[in-house]
Amino acid sequence: MSAKSEISDLLKQYELDVQDKNIEDLLRLHTSNIEAFDLMPPFKYSGKELLRDRIEHWFKSYDGEIKFKFNDIHVESGEELSICHALIKTSGKLKNGERTDMWTRSTLGLKKEEGQWRIFHEHTSEPIDVATGKAVTELSL
């Protein structure tokens, strides 16, 4: 199987783990020394334990299912290192009753660890409207 196919499978598993709110399986896709840059403070998480706390908080903020899908995926891969960027569509109902429906950008750095691709760098962001300083979460290409 090619690296791009293996990474595509990893991304499909990532989607399922988010939709199932399966923290343990989602964390297995990451290296122990993951560096994650996220949308919400503190913006940077170093290591799986801090990432676990962030994911737990995220999953608990939703009432029910989180719809989560990687779109427009691009992978550049070598033998041991790969980079992937994509647009992510996330939607669902928050515990406060609000519905979310937003697009974010994601860049993943992956490396081979014991024969498996693992995420060692994860960066999620939203573009901003420079006039208002507010995040733009509706997709327009």
TrEMBL record:
Location of the SnoaL-like domain: 7-128
Pfam (any one): SnoaL_3
Name this polypeptide is given: Nuclear transport factor 2 family protein
Organism, as annotated: Bacteriovorax antarcticus
